[in-house]
């Protein structure tokens, strides 16, 4: 069943076209990621889905309803992570949780959210006195407090330390396992690879790729890098003579073969023919980072620093 349907969405701020003909669907129980460089139009897109912005053209449906004109039909089913600036600075964490709970007939157990998001010690702390990571965790708790059927989370784990990020991923997986559909804006490839069933890559207001993280990485023709130590000396010329191989490099006893996606099969078959084996064999596969860079045509050497490498994200290079 389709839970979110975005069709030919357009949104401009004055002269600036932020979203330019974006379409995608999110199915029930799916974690759907929206990826893209800074300023790509991700937040504008999910704000239109949340009913916070009215599209200039195109349509958005959540459970078949317009999230602005039929707000009453979707309000209790939709949980939206607010930007931090939208919370009252003087409100204490416990008060915010009580207040937001009171908006719903059947709220989630906020003590559970407080526990998983490790906000227990901050219950009496005012919002303005929280650290960035604590404010972020509170915004996640408030998005989930109505026990929504759809959660829209923008920059879910930005600013969280690795342990908090890991716990948050666990929380998101738990609520997905209960049938909640999740639309997630993320900058972190590792997060998209870990959590998302499908992702849309948005660049300059347009969807440039759509599919599972695995499908996106397999779609790009990134070179394969094969490292091994041959059981006996082998001449580089034999390997470079294979049509699947682009180059051969030596690091001490180790041979590094760079080739296309068929290179591993070709190299191992050649070694078998020569009566050799590849010791300490390692193959480096393309990651979603590589796919993203290929899709948005931003090489690692690009001057655009809008996509800083994230710690914990493993690339092949
Ligand atoms: P980021 O990853 O940096 O958060 P994003 O992909 O979420 O970016 P948006 O915030 O949707 O992108 O912005 C898309 C474009 O629209 C950007 O060029 C941005 O500068 C512009 N923009 C966003 N909000 C406004 C606004 N309220 N007024 C004018 N321009 C805006």
Structural summary, described in words:
A 6-stranded mixed sheet has the order 5-6-7-3-8-9, sandwiched between helices. A 4-stranded antiparallel sheet has the order 11-12-10-13. Strands 2-1-4 form a 3-stranded antiparallel sheet, with helices on one face. α8 crosses α11. The protein has 2 domains: 2-218, Rossmann fold, CATH 3.40.50; 224-284, Alpha-Beta Plaits. The chain is α/β, with parallel strands linked by helices. The chain has helices at residues 42-50, 71-74, 93-101, 110-116, 132-144, 162-177, 189-195, 213-219, 236-240, 263-273, 288-295; strands at 2-13, 16-27, 31-35, 57-62, 78-80, 150-154, 181-185, 198-203, 206-211, 224-230, 245-251, 254-259, 278-284. The protein has 11 helices and 13 strands. The structure holds adenosine-5'-triphosphate. Adenosine-5'-triphosphate is lined by residues 13, 16, 18, 36, 38-44.
Give a topology summary:
Layout: E1 2-13, E2 16-27, E3 31-35, H1 42-50, E4 57-62, H2 71-74, E5 78-80, H3 93-101, H4 110-116, H5 132-144, E6 150-154, H6 162-177, E7 181-185, H7 189-195, E8 198-203, E9 206-211, H8 213-219, E10 224-230, H9 236-240, E11 245-251, E12 254-259, H10 263-273, E13 278-284, H11 288-295
Parallel strand pairs: 3-7, 3-8, 5-6, 6-7
Antiparallel strand pairs: 1-2, 1-4, 8-9, 10-12, 10-13, 11-12
Helix pairs in contact: 8-11
The chain binds adenosine-5'-triphosphate (ATP).
